[in-house]
Every structure is written in structure tokens, then in C-alpha cells.
Amino acid sequence: MALSLGTAALVLVALLWELSRPTRQLARTRLRELWRLRSSAEQPAAYDPGRERRAEQRARELLRSCVSEHDWAMYRDLGFLCVAGALRGERARAHAPAHAREPGAAGADGEEPAYAYLIYPHKPIVAYVPATGELLNEYCVAFPDHTRPYGSARLPDSDDVLAKWMALSADERRLVGEANMHLPGRQVDPDRVRRDLARLARWEREQRERRVRPARDLLDAHDSTSVRAA
Amino acid sequence: MKLLRMKPGHGEIVLAEGDVEVPEQERQLIEAFRRQLDAGMWAAVPTQAPGGRREAELVKSFSEVPRDAERVIFFPRAAGGAPAAKR
Hints:
The structure holds two protein chains of two kinds. Chain A is an alpha+beta fold. Chain A has a domain at 51-188. Chain A has eight helices and five strands, in the order ααααβααβββαβα. Chain A has helices at 2-19, 21-42, 49-66, 69-78, 90-95, 98-101, 157-178, 190-229, and strands at 81-84, 116-119, 125-128, 135-142, 180-182. In chain A, strands 1-2-3-4-5 form a five-stranded antiparallel beta sheet. In chain A, a hairpin with a 6-residue loop joins strand 3 (125-128) and strand 4 (135-142). In chain A, helix 3 crosses helix 7 (157-178). By secondary structure, chain B is an alpha+beta fold. A five-stranded mixed beta sheet of chain B has the order 2-1-5-3-4. Chain B is globular, with a radius of gyration of 15 Å. Strand 4 (135-142) of chain A pairs antiparallel with strand 6 (79-80) of chain B.
């Protein structure tokens, strides 16, 4: 009895298996097609150097239209921006070294700010003391676009610099609050920053000389004319 | 006024453009502005101080945008922690 029931069950299973074969095949084909579509949708757009170059070109134009001529020239020549710190109160005092915290230390309104930031593309913002060149902190901050329109969340270099500049210029406290603060050297090589500060000082000197030279030439020309007339 | 958005792999794109003095165009600007804020973007208005100094202002609503502003730039909100740099 048990044997016959077992045999009947086996036959029934085999029969059902055979009957459902077309349905299973169809389902398998559909699943394969769905998997293929999903994979192709998730696949990031292929890297296109031309597109990235055009994006960077647009970003540079936008940056140029937003910052001052001096700042634009700095970024064009040196590859980074320098922004004076403007925070006041406890936070600024906590970050600035003792000599920068003294009353009378130059602030945002003075000739030289108590502290300033170097903005690099896709690198942490570095805070330093312009008077001494002492490095204070690194502020790790990014502006990831999670929509990843071309497979990457990274803005073009100049857009990243502009985003940092706008955020620092508009609400330094908020940006510093959003960033992860580290001691200098965590991600940006301190030697490189010191070299950049030396380059910046040289560049500023050259800019000053360039501004002064036309006036000096004019004075020299005037003097020589006066001597000749006498 | 132009609403621009920074976009990876593209640079900025124009989201909307219009005259804030024209009600219909202003409505479209406000809608586009809200969509960006809802998507988690920060909005900044580049400005020029009386002394000629260039600055920017972060705005949280369309009413905070100066009426004479030419551009509002949207960019992804800041997130702490940049990827490890290669020296």
C-alpha cells in the first residue's frame, strides 16, 4: 500500500515538474532580462576625459565670475585660494595660537588676518597663521552629489573650490562645524603646505611689484622730462 | 535671475531663469528653488560688498534672496570627511 502511494506521489511530482517546465523557462528568461536591465542601469557612465575637461572649464568660468580678480589670479597661478578667517569669539580663540588671540591682533578688518585658510580642490581646508606660517588645523569637508549624474559624486575641481569659498565666505562657522577637524598633516602634507605658503608670499610680492611698477615708471618719466626741461 | 546648479561631470547647469518682477516667472523660480532645497542642496548668492569685496551669502528660502541678485548657485551640502589624499 505504502509502496504504491509512494510511487503515485513520485509520478505526480514528475508530471507536475514536466507540466510547469514552460512556465519555469519563461520566468527564468524574465529574471535574466530584469537582471540585465538592472545591471546596465547601475553601470556608471564611461569616463570621458573630454566631458570632464569641459566640465572643469565651465567650473573655472563660474569661479572666475564669483571671486575677485586677485583671487582668480591666485587660483589660476597657484592652484589654490587663500581666504582670511573671520570667526570671532570662543571658537576663533580656541583655534588661533596665543599671539593671535591677544587683543589687538589683526582680524578680518586689519591688514593681516589672525588666521586664514588655504582652499585646495578635493583636499581638506588648511587653517594657518599668516604672520608666522604656523599650521593650525585641517578641515576635512566634501560636497558629494549623491545623484551621481555621470557615475561620480565629485564636483569638478573648480566647483569644489568655489563651494568651499562660498560656504566659508558666507558662513564660516557652519562650514567649520560640518567639517571633520584634524591636526595638520592628516591628509595634506605639511611640507607641501609650507612650500605653498612660500609660493603664495612670493606671488603676493610679485603682484605688489606689478602694481607699483607702472606708477614708478610714470614718476621716472616725469623726473627725466623735468630734468631735460631745466 | 538665474538658478544654477553645480553638477559632477558637467559644471553648472541652468535650472531656471526669469524675472522676479513677473509673477509667473517668479513662481517658477520659487518652485525650482524649493525643489533644490528639498533635494538637500545649499543655495548661495554671490555678492559684492560696497568696497568691491566679493562675498557669498547662504540662503535658506527664496525670500532671503536679494531681489536684484543675478544668480543663485546650488551645490551639494557639505559633509565632513574628505577621502584620504595620496601624497
